[in-house]
Automatic annotation (TrEMBL):
Compositionally biased tracts (Basic and acidic residues): 264-275
Annotated segments matching region Disordered: 252-276
Superkingdom per UniProt: Bacteria
Protein name per UniProt: Porin
Length: 371
């Protein structure tokens, strides 16, 4: 019983949002919403090579929609692992995909890097740690989430590698995310091989990530497309300063293939509120550049996340960038986050969300508590 008590912990958070462009927020001075109660189980007994990790989230702040199901709960992580020997570790279940690094902010999330950082997917992962400068990780991703669900329950991401949004502005939340049934996605990632290789010199890790696999259409499983992505990136800590950089190339094939192959009935707009035919296609090819920097000052950690997506093809979208400026305070049992999201700095049509050309500013205050 004592071992179980040592393995289980709990946490909670809620968020205040103020969108400077929202008339409702101007009238009400913003809203406090998105609560989440979380249960963490991390069982790593010293006398066993087996281990178990899980995170169950309950509430509207759990970042879960189950492909249109309004259930406000889900497993962000659920995996069983085994230490194969002193160098190799195996993990099976829903766990982190070894692709690049995760942005520093908490609430706004990956933004332009959505689906192209270390999100959580279902599959088999192998990690090698030789206690030297070289490291490697591999993963076979079977699906984005359990079953045919298209979400991954990552914190505040716009979408995923196997998703494409083309919704009307009326279906958009104030923080540029989509909620409930409006988070339905047109296709999802399956059967994907991922590799990550790193070399650490001094305080900096230099690494390459790559992935290749399939995208399958949600309405016509015969319609598939090959996708791949590669990232060159660095991670470094220099005293009180942290600096991460990343360049990504992504390729989801011909952006018209899934649109041409899939046969859909779109007569019911409530089933899927599509604005145009391009919503059925992939996002084609392009590049993403990202920089994250942070500075530790006592109990305060100040950070900036900047990322820019540059599509190669004319899909009605242009190069655009997002930035998050934030700080978090460690008050003991948790953190208090103050984050300002400035989205679409270039005032072009968003290549991830397909939104109109406008810059938006959103203030997020988040409090969490762990015990």
């Amino acid at each position: 019983m004592a071992a179980l008590e040592d393995s289980v912990s709990f946490g909670t958070w809620f968020n205040y949002t103020y969108d400077n462009d929202s008339e409702a927020d101007q009238d009400t001075l913003g809203e406090v919403d998105y609560p989440s109660f979380n249960i963490y189980v991390n069982h790593h007994p010293e006398d066993s090579v087996w281990f178990f990790d899980a995170e169950l989230r309950i509430g509207s702040g759990s970042f879960q929609s189950f492909s249109g199901d309004d259930r406000e709960w889900g497993f962000k992580e659920l995996a069983v692992g085994r230490e194969l020997n002193e160098q190799w570790t195996m993990t099976l279940g829903k766990t982190a995909v070894p692709f690049g690094w995760k942005t520093f902010n908490f609430w706004p999330g990956a933004r332009m890097l959505s689906g192209l950082e270390d999100q959580m997917n279902v599959g088999l992962r192998l990690d090698s740690d030789s206690s030297g400068p070289m490291d490697a990780s591999y993963m076979l991703v079977k699906s984005q989430n359990w079953g045919d669900d298209t979400t991954s329950q990552d914190d505040g991401t716009l979408g995923h590698w196997g998703t494409n949004f083309a919704y009307d502005d009326d279906n958009q939340d104030s923080d540029n995310t989509l909620a409930g049934s409006q988070r339905n996605n047109t296709y999802r990632k399956i059967n994907t091989l991922v590799g990550d290789w790193g070399y650490t010199a001094g305080n900096t890790r230099y690494a390459l990530s790559a992935q290749v696999g399939q995208l399958v259409d949600q309405d016509d499983t015969d319609a598939t497309e090959t996708h791949y992505a590669a990232a060159l990136y660095t991670e470094g800590s220099y005293g009180a300063f942290d600096l991460n950089t990343k360049v990504v190339h992504y390729d989801q094939g011909d952006p018209s293939d899934l649109a041409d192959d899939a046969e859909r009935d779109v007569s019911d707009p409530g089933e899927r509120p599509i604005t145009d035919e391009a919503a059925y296609s992939t996002r084609g090819q392009g590049q993403i550049v990202a920089i994250s920097g942070g500075y530790q000052a006592g109990n305060w950690y100040n950070y900036v996340d900047w990322n820019m997506r540059m599509p190669d093809e004319d899909l009605g979208t242009d190069d655009t960038m997002d930035a998050v400026v934030g700080t978090r305070y460690n008050y003991g049992p948790g953190w208090i986050y103050t984050e300002v999201l400035v989205s679409n700095l270039t005032e072009e049509k968003d290549p991830v969300m397909g939104l109109e050309d406008e810059t938006r500013e959103v203030v997020n205050l988040t409090v969490d508590y762990y015990f």
